[in-house]
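Consider what follows.

. . .
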Amino acid sequence: MHNSEIFEMEFFKTVITFSGFDEGFLQRCDTIWYKDAWWLVATAFEDPATGHKIPDRLVRLTGLRYQEVNEREYRFLLGTAIPISVFEGQMSEGYVIEYYPALADIQEPTPGAVSRH
């Protein structure tokens, strides 16, 4: 994958709720198409030179219960609460976690891949 492909990546939003953290609050989470599946972006980096967002930790949306709704501010609705521990990188049955092969030399993930709705 080339840097130009990362920078041209399209980000969508998914409305999610967490279990184990801010339960009941709707959150909007960045979502990308990668490896023939939809993925929630749990953490992301920002390239300081370009300002482009680069995904880091991903949680696979495809395979979970969700709806595609194509609203103005979000594209998907996740049907069940997702454990916050999964977003923090802990493996849990029924969830697939993967790390995106970020190509930029960046030190810290950017908080805010998930934002309150």
